Every structure is written in structure tokens, then in C-alpha cells.
Amino acid sequence: MSVPSPSSRLAYHGKMSELPSGDAHEIIHLGGETAVVVPLDEYRRLRHDAHRAQLIELADEEEAAAVAAFRARQAAGPVVTVPQAEVRRRFGLASQ
């Protein structure tokens, strides 16, 4: 089973030539690039959201790698597990 990367589903790779109608942001041109002027609070929120998206993407990738590793161990032979209560008993820890 293949787990698609969230970035492959959400990334926008096209060029935007103008803002949607009714958008109140100002457009400026810098060095051949078009930029949108946004209030600083909005920029900070966008940066925060982008950072959270990166963390979620990283967690998704780590989860997919862990699932793949577990499935590889399963394919190699039986996976032995020990119930938590037995582990606690073996290590002399109090049962919960």
C-alpha cells in the first residue's frame, strides 16, 4: 500500500497572474516577481500555518516509514509481541 504525501495533494505549482476578484490585497512587482502585500499579523499566521503543515507532513512521512518497516518485519516472519502487563511483571514494575 502506498501512502501519498500530503504535499503532493496540496501543492500549487501554477502561476497566479492576478488576485481573485474582491480580494483587497495590494500587488507589487519586485525584480520580475509579483508579490502580494499582506498585513504583518496575517503574514505571521500564514507562516505559523505553513510551519504546522510541515510538521504534519513530517509526522505523516514518519508514520508511513514505521508502517512500512512493520510490514517488512511481518513479511519476514511472525512478529512477537508481549502484553504490557507481562512486561511490567518481568521488570518488577507495579501493575496498573
Summarize the structure.
The protein is mostly helical and 96 residues long.
Strand arrangement, major sheet: 1-2
- The number of helical elements comes to 3
SS strand fraction: 5-15%
CA-CA gap between termini? 37 Å
Shape: elongated
Order of helices and strands: HEEHH
The total of beta strands comes to: 2
Which stretches are low in confidence, meaning pLDDT under 50 for 5 or more residues running? Answer: none
Which structural category fits the helices and strands? mainly alpha
Largest sheet: 2 strands, antiparallel
Question: What's the Cα radius of gyration?
Answer: 24 Å
What features would you describe in this structure?
The chain has helices at residues 6-10, 40-76, 84-90; strands spanning 26-30, 33-37. The protein is mainly alpha-helical and 96 residues long. The protein has a two-stranded antiparallel sheet with strand order 1-2. β1 (26-30) and β2 form a beta hairpin.
Characteristic key phrases:
single chain; 96 residues; mainly alpha; two-stranded antiparallel ribbon; 3 helices; elongated
List the SSEs and their pairings.
Blueprint: H1 6-10, E1 26-30, E2 33-37, H2 40-76, H3 84-90
